């Protein structure tokens, strides 16, 4: 019975992380709040004291402090403060339920539950895309579970979770994951999400080249953290290059291409630097809307790490990097969740993808990775540790 309840909580947590836009906002939010508090009570009752005060509190506490700081400064609404508290709770629940799974031998159950929920979301998304079409699909609620970006990332996560939950020593599973990669590419191209297409192809190439050459450096915490830091620098480097007259002439006059990348460089040129410096240490808090208020057009920083630093300041950015480093340390076997992690890192150059997809990848590598001894060579899946 305990395991059945645990499975239900995993499904509900997935539902809370990835919004079902066909459900009314008020009802969806109510379900999310109830779910998060039920999971919290479940974890507090079953985790040991040392596991209750776990490493996720490093970032969750920064989120809360940033919210309170901005609320006291009267630059934050009560609703925004409550949203920040809910975000911090969600982060804690996600990390802790993975930790609980590791400590209690539920690794296979939680990873398989994530895969099944993800598969259902992808199947329903395909139906939604066929019904709705691809016009105006950047709208946040264009499809059942979000816009073209979220929908595309669901397919990338499905690929990673398939490799993560199946015995990839078997030929048929290798064929299936290749088919999933092809389907993922076709889907992202069809819905017009070029960022996801590039991110998926890059991540798959990095992973399989690394795996075939046993290049474990791609899972090195130093390497991953350095690349994440680099994603915050790359936009400014590209921006500087595009200011060179020769480059502008080639792109604009010869090839007749826009150099704005959908307005992103206007963000980097006019707004982002000043916003980051204005509240350098603790940022503007979760769900702040500051970019929209100063620009009147743009809703975020259009960069993964920079968006987090705008929300939670330099301290929040450091907390994220420390969490990633801590999660990847001492990992020897290359995890298929690296596909999702690298895809989100690549996309983070021009999109806000240090998100729940990113954290599921990080926490899965940290807590849910299976060892060689747990692989059933005669089965498609890993042995269930709870059987």
Task: Describe the overall structure.
This protein is mainly α and 387 residues long. It has one domain. It has 16 helices and no strands. Helix 5 packs parallel to helix 16 and helix 14 packs parallel to helix 16. The two termini are 14 Å apart. The C terminus is likely disordered.
Summarize the topology.
Elements: H1 2-17, H2 25-46, H3 49-52, H4 57-72, H5 78-103, H6 107-132, H7 148-165, H8 171-190, H9 194-212, H10 221-242, H11 245-254, H12 264-278, H13 290-295, H14 304-328, H15 337-347, H16 356-368
Figure out the total of helices.
16
Q: Specify Rg, calculated over alpha carbons.
A: 21 Å
Overall geometry comes to globular
Question: What is the element string, with H for helices and E for strands?
Answer: HHHHHHHHHHHHHHHH
SS elements, strand count: 0
Can you tell me the residue ranges where pLDDT is under 50 for at least 5 consecutive residues?
371-378, 382-387
Overall domain count = 1
Sheet having the most strands: none
How far apart, in Å, are the first and last alpha carbons? 14 Å
Oligomer: single chain
């Amino acid at each position: 019975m305990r395991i059945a309840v645990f499975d239900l909580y995993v499904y509900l947590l997935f539902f809370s992380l990835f919004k079902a836009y066909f459900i009314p906002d008020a009802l969806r939010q109510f379900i999310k709040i109830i779910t998060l508090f039920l999971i919290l009570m479940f974890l507090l009752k079953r985790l040991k004291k040392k596991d209750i005060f776990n490493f996720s509190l490093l970032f969750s506490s920064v989120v809360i402090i940033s919210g309170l700081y901005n609320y006291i400064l009267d630059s934050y609404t009560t609703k925004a403060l409550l949203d920040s508290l809910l975000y911090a709770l969600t982060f804690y629940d996600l990390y802790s339920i993975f930790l609980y799974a590791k400590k209690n031998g539920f690794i296979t159950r939680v990873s398989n539950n994530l895969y099944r929920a993800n598969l259902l979301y992808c199947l329903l998304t395909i139906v939604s895309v066929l019904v709705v079409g691809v016009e105006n699909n950047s709208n946040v609620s264009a499809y059942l579970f979000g816009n073209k970006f979220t929908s595309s990332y669901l397919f990338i996560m499905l690929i990673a979770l398939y490799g993560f939950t199946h015995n990839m020593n078997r030929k048929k599973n290798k064929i299936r994951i290749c088919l999933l990669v092809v389907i993922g590419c076709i889907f992202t191209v069809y819905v017009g999400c070029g960022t996801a297409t590039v991110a998926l192809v890059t991540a798959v190439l990095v992973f399989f080249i690394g795996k075939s050459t046993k290049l474990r450096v791609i899972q090195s915490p130093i390497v991953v953290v350095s690349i994440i830091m680099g994603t915050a620098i790359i936009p400014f480097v590209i921006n500087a290059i595009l200011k060179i007259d020769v480059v502008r002439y080639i792109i604009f006059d010869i090839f007749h291409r826009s150099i704005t990348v959908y307005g992103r460089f206007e963000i980097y040129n006019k707004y982002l630097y000043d916003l980051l410096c204005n509240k350098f240490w603790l940022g503007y808090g979760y769900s702040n809307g500051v970019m929209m208020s100063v620009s009147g057009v743009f809703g975020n920083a259009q960069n993964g790490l920079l968006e987090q630093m705008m929300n939670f300041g330099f301290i929040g950015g450091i907390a994220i990097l420390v969490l990633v480093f801590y999660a990847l340390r001492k990992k020897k076997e290359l995890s298929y969740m690296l596909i999702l992690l690298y895809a989100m890192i690549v996309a983070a150059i021009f999109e806000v993808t240090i998100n729940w997809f990113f954290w599921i990848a990080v926490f899965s590598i940290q807590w849910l990775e299976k060892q060689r001894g747990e692989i059933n060579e005669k089965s498609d899946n890993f042995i269930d540790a709870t059987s």
